[in-house]
Amino acid sequence: MSVLAYDLGASSGRVLLGKLTDSRIVVEEIHRFSNDPVKVGERLHWDILRLYHEVQQGLLKAKHMGVNPSSLAIDSWAVDFGLIGETGELLGNPYHYRDWHTHGVMENVQKRLGKEFIFQRTGIQFLTFNTIYQLAAMRKMSSPLLEQATHFLMIPDLLRYFLTGEMFHEFSNATSTQLYHPLQQKWDDELLSGINIPRSWFGEVLEPGSVAGTIRSSVMTDLGVGAIPVIAVAEHDTGSAVAAVPALERSFAYLSCGTWSLMGTETAQPVINDDTLRFNFTNEGGVGRTYRLLKNIMGLWILQEARREWERQGYSYSFPELVRLAEQAPAFTCLIDPDDELFLHAGDMKTRIRQYCRNTGQPLPDTPGEITRCILESLALKYCYILELTERVSGQRFNGLHMVGGGIQNHLLCQWTANSIQKPVWAGPAEASAIGNLAVQWMTQRKFSDIWEARGVIADSIVVEEYEPAESEAWEDAYGRFRRVTGLFVH
């Protein structure tokens, strides 16, 4: 049973061929490509047609391998979208969530509609780039696209539409917009009306594991492929990553680690109360009508952007080289809050880190090793803080932390996370989003009865590396200083 998983991240995309044999999952990467945002004037966009081209290239590579997949599915980052006009064509390139056009918009929408009102209706954390604020920003700019649009499609919805000609939404991604009411299980009419966006743009929301169409005849002709079903999996890549967590206990904590870090647990119902609002937790949809009670953490974006700046200056460092330099730098010299707004947008991260340290009365890091160590130690300490909050808002206690995603290839970060939380870290799989994508496709084909059977097979199919906590006293002292420097406290 060969299936194709398209896993699109904020910096790269990949196509994985998955085979299920003898209750084992075998995965082969058959295509990888960069995903580079494009700045035009003052606006930052996704190159969506290039991404669609790469989707087709993945199909061609499978065909040239002699593979006829029984289905395919796409997952990607959340919140971003395209608008379709009455002729069925895309109206403009989708904005990138790091574009500046949402600056100040979230606060204005909160003033008009009420922060508690929005949270009670959605259970979604407040992030400046949420879909609701992107649409409100376009309305504020009097974007002509809003007058021409007839349909709203998020990134995987849009690519599925290009492939199949069918327009559907998917549950995990729909919940991320802060425009979906999880208790009423529908798009929220009052919030859409509150930002003056037509309800008619928003159609049927499919459950993960639903068939969302078949490759259209023109694509079959152009590529020389058959009528392949297209499945709506958990199309928010974090939803797919959580589906692949090889947990054997029903109560577990996870950290999906990559450009973004997302930490939380899985719940049967959204947790919408004073604590989740106060600590800005979110309730995003998952597989089997579960919810991901989690928080976004800035993640390895800060290190990726620092590395890009060094490259622009003519210094080329691989990530393993930066990790080696970090190990050689002094410990706990300076600490940052990775989620400070200073670090949200692209730019010179070294200068911003030094600014943060100057503002908080700390020594200023200078070398690539010192900068990298500051970032990684701060991330590990922030993970400890968020894990404490996750236990509080969920009412659960966790024996350790499952880390998944590409960030687990940074063994230093995994070990420092174990040191920081003083609990074991179980790292794997690295390609969690793609494997979760594959697993839900097999659930659709009734190869797995539910997500727990799938997780059992995933656990048997991969190597999970365990990191035991160490240096408890040093990390406990550092955590206290981290809390004081960042002003983060559990009330």
Q: Key terms for this structure?
A:
alpha/beta, 7-stranded mixed sheet, 6-stranded mixed sheet, 41% helix
Walk me through the structure:
The protein is globular, with a radius of gyration of 22 Å. 50% of the residues are buried. The longest helix is centred in the last third of the chain and has 27 residues, at 368-394. Helix 10 crosses helix 17 (432-444), helix 15 packs across helix 16 and helix 17 packs across helix 18. 41% of the residues lie in helices and 20% in strands. The protein starts with a strand and ends in a 5-residue tail after the last helix. The protein contains 19 helices and 21 strands. The strands form six sheets. The protein has a seven-stranded mixed sheet, with helices on both faces. A six-stranded mixed sheet has the order 3-2-1-6-14-13, with helices on both faces. The protein is of the alpha/beta class. The model has no long low-confidence stretch (mean pLDDT 97). The chain has helices spanning 48-64, 105-113, 115-122, 131-140, 144-148, 155-164, 171-175, 189-194, 217-223, 237-243, 274-278, 301-312, 319-328, 349-359, 368-394, 411-421, 432-444, 451-461, 472-486, and strands at 2-8, 12-21, 24-34, 38-40, 43-45, 72-75, 81-85, 149-154, 169-170, 180-181, 186-187, 205-206, 210-214, 229-232, 253-257, 261-267, 282-285, 291-297, 401-404, 425-427, 465-467.
Task: Describe, in short, the structure shown.
This protein is α/β, with parallel strands linked by helices and 491 residues long. Helix content is 41%, strand content 20%. It has helices at 48-64, 105-113, 115-122, 131-140, 144-148, 155-164, 171-175, 189-194, 217-223, 237-243, 274-278, 301-312, 319-328, 349-359, 368-394, 411-421, 432-444, 451-461, 472-486; strands spanning 2-8, 12-21, 24-34, 38-40, 43-45, 72-75, 81-85, 149-154, 169-170, 180-181, 186-187, 205-206, 210-214, 229-232, 253-257, 261-267, 282-285, 291-297, 401-404, 425-427, 465-467.
